[in-house]
Write a structure and sequence with these properties.
Belongs to the glycosyltransferase 43 family. About 25% of the residues lie in helices and about 15% in strands. It is of the alpha+beta class. The longest helix has 14 residues.
Length: about 140
């Protein structure tokens, strides 16, 4: 991420049917997407699978990541279309062949265990903030 000039991309590990999703890269350029859902999206990528340089954010003040108003699953594409093109994407993680980040699903019991574990490692207030969900009591 540190070497991102504009927008960089990489694979993301998933839970469920697909073990990962990733940009397809040929000759150092993104040419498509390996995804289990809506491969027709302009940027068929999870929000954990890209980074945007601060300079791009500052030079595009009207670009927004919409929490509402995008079709389901289109938030990433709607945002990235405002600031880049697929041709400009910078593949990372050895041309998107290595999964270096993974999404995980936790049920509430797992979150409680994780919170206790983190509070032992980080005795400050950080442990109490990590892994908080609105569904917890």
């Amino acid at each position: 991420m540190r070497t991102t000039r504009k927008v960089s991309v990489w694979p993301v590990g998933l839970v469920g049917g697909r073990r990962y999703e990733r940009p397809l890269v040929e000759n150092g350029k993104v040419v498509g997407w390996y995804t289990g859902w809506r491969a027709d999206r302009p940027f068929a990528i999870d929000m954990a699978g890209f980074a945007v340089s601060l300079q791009v954010i500052l030079s595009n003040p009207k670009a927004v990541f919409k929490r509402r108003g995008s079709q389901p699953g289109m938030q990433e594409s709607d945002f990235l279309k405002q600031i880049t093109t697929v041709e400009e994407l910078e593949p990372k993680a050895s041309n998107c062949t290595k999964v270096l980040i993974s999404l995980m699903l936790f049920d509430l019991e797992c979150l409680s265990v994780l919170r206790v574990w983190l509070s032992k490692i980080f005795p400050s207030s950080l442990g109490s903030r990590v892994a908080h969900t609105d569904r917890e009591g």
